[in-house]
């Protein structure tokens, strides 16, 4: 999740564990410890692009590290808050929960989190919330701002009620997201079953800033199918699938390269590839695509949010991010809103691959 959300959740945990002891300082300490796992980014200047891809949400997000940190910091923090009579067990519990909740909500996104490092390289992701979702963050943030006006210990019951409301609404939204994902997944499953489509695997994740419009990616043979479903769509309405050839043969000559192996692990093999003028271009299909609409009705430029070019003969960093810049964000959000309400006319109109290096438009097909 984004840094604001992580700090806000950490602040709420701090208030819940330490609020009765140290007052509003608990929110500040919670916000600090709620963002500590993401401080792995301070090492980014020392790493190349491939190492950064593997390092972020790595060891700093593991259960082992959070347990070690909790045990190591329990007594020092207890001494720091000695006058407030904070015990080592309470201080250690605070560190663990602030760290753990950060990692937990990271697991809700498609990015994947190395919870089991160093015992397993697997990245865990439940794919039920977008990386930035105001409906999760705003209740928590509002409750913390509200708490700042209640400083007296006599007002502690009010502080507790306010915090419970914030945590309750945000937690309830998480539960709702799982329910909505289940509903959307059932729709995708029913559509594929109706078409008698066999596939290797399939995942669903929400689109930007909401849990009402879901995106499914389906792997079958050397193709990846992409479809969208709003929770407000008529259940019997067929899903429009866009089919992208994976073109694994393009990657095969570079399969043993460190950069390609890292991309394969990071993307959990959810990638497509295309020829590049200096090598190959790879996109991680889990993160979705932006759709840039030009002046011609029905023409769509699909650009994938997580993509890279690998240039094997280049000196230095051979892996480079080709993530598209955000254009027409207001128009994109407007179209997402229309699609959530069931308007598919412009949202699903004739995608083309102008934003995909080396791709040929005729390689793309649509299944309706």
Element layout with pairings:
Elements: H1 3-22, H2 25-35, H3 49-55, H4 63-80, H5 88-107, H6 134-147, H7 156-194, E1 201-206, E2 213-220, E3 223-230, E4 241-245, H8 248-251, H9 258-266, E5 271-276, E6 279-284, E7 289-293, E8 300-304, E9 307-310, E10 319-321, H10 329-340, E11 351-352, E12 365-367
Parallel strand pairs: 8-11
Antiparallel strand pairs: 1-2, 2-3, 3-4, 4-12, 5-6, 6-9, 7-8, 9-10
Helix pairs in contact: 1-2, 1-5, 1-6, 1-7, 2-5, 3-9, 4-5, 6-7
Q: How are the strands of the largest sheet arranged?
A: 1-2-3-4-12
User: From N to C, what is the helix and strand string?
Assistant: HHHHHHHEEEEHHEEEEEEHEE
Class inferred from helices and paired strands: alpha+beta
The total strand number stands at 12
| Beta-strand content | 15-25%
